[in-house]
Design brief:
This protein is mostly helical. Helix content is 71%, strand content 0%. The longest helix is centred in the C-terminal third of the chain and has 42 residues.
Length: 100
């Protein structure tokens, strides 16, 4: 049975990242995550890593990419909310409901 269809085990996939590393990544700014993601990709592209080192760089890159995407999604949500608020304000500008 493949991992994606196995529902009998509720364990997280094996990872070489420590809890401390995951917490550090979770507290990174977008710029920090992006810069470290670039380094991880460059290490993989450069080659010369053994399988364990390659897998570690891959896992690190995945965690960094997820952090960066989460931060971008949060900014997008804020922008969407601001645009919606601006549209609501524009729709009621100069109307009686704007004076209430």
């Amino acid at each position: 049975m493949t991992e994606s269809t196995d529902t009998t085990h509720n364990t997280a996939p094996a990872s070489s990242l420590t809890q401390e590393e995951r917490e550090r990544i979770a507290s990174m700014s977008y710029e920090e995550a992006r810069d470290q993601l670039i380094q991880a990709v460059q290490a993989l592209e450069a080659g010369g890593l053994n399988l364990d080192q390659s897998m570690r760089q891959w896992e690190l890159g995945e965690a960094l990419a997820k952090r960066a995407q989460t931060l971008l999604d949060q900014v997008r949500a804020k922008l969407d909310a601001a645009q919606a608020q601006q549209q609501t304000s524009a729709d009621t500008a100069g109307t009686q409901s704007n004076l209430e």
